[in-house]
Amino acid sequence: MNKLLWFLPILLFFYSCSSEEDKVNLEPVNNTVTKAGRNIILMIGDGMGLSQISGARTVNGGTLNILRCRVIGLQSTHAADKYVTDSGAAATAMACGEKVNFYTLGIDTAGNPLTSIVEIAEMNNLSTGLITTSEITHATPAAFYAHQSDRYLYENIALDLIGKGVDFFLGGGKKYFNQRTDGLNLLDSLTSRNYQVRDDLALVSGNQKAAIFIAENIPLTYLHGRGNVLPDAVTVAVQQLNQNKNGFFLMVEGAQIDWACEENNQDYLMAEMIDFDKAVGRALDFAEADGNTLVVITGDHETGGYSLMDGSVENHTVQGQFISWLHTGTMVPVFAYGPGEEEFKGVYENAALFYKFLDFYGLDQ
Ligand SMILES: [Zn+2]
What we know:
The protein is an alpha/beta fold. It has helices at about 5-25, 50-60, 85-95, 115-125, 140, 155-160, 175-180, 185-190, 230-240, 255-260, 265-290, 350-360, and strands at about 40-45, 70-75, 125-135, 170, 195-200, 210-215, 250-255, 295-300, 300-305, 305-310, 315-320, 325-330, 330-335, 345-350. The chain is globular. Bound molecules: zinc ion. Zinc ion binds near residues 46 and 47.
């Protein structure tokens, strides 16, 4: 055999290896700060992993608003002291940029208060909003304004919300404001701080700060009469918050996705997923028209170890199974749409989201 021909496959082998390596090595490292946008809408499907999204896509006939996003990443959700997180530690990481201990809110592992993206936004004269289908004092929204060693200290958490400057909030948990063991009436405190305090989203008017309590305590499920308050709240909130030309930060939580998975109840899960996705659609419609708004959609962790065993897109049916009533430790997807969306590609820790938000606004911690 000609010596050169004998050597050719080896040369080709090395060439292909080095070219693969070159591709990896030449991948641009994008640390560029993007300051092209003004507003962020962070949408958290509590307990929403890839199977929850896949199942909802199937029962919705193969489509979802979430899937309108062009950029997808993955975030790792573990807490500082546990592999499988709770909602408080996960939301604190996203809100404050640091992994913290299980069941804590807005404090680091040494007990010192952290500063959340909502607090930083308020300090920089941006508007802020929090919307949830759980109590407004529940772990996920609370991580954006509260600093407590125990996520179940609901009356303390309600106190933390007063005077924080959040311009629009909606959720349950009214009793932690007006039926308190200390006798305080925090609804009066909100009114004296120029909030319109309402029990019905439809009664919100003008651009005055709004506190909307959709339940004394726990809001209804979508299947049992909650109606379209979640998507409608997004529409009302963005109209109000967008009056501030400095920009806004709005967090929207589909809280009962998690509760459905904890009950291992697929019908409940799919109804909550579709409702959350309608809310995502409202946010994306606004962002498309506005051009200055980044929408980020993610979960805080997966719940239930939900898997799809069979299904039919044509018939809009899925046969899912849960392996647990608890949270699980799998990574969860992050979808992004709008200016700065490229920053959300790749695989990162949940705490990285906070820094991506700061970079978007061009703000410091
Ligand atoms: Zn959660």
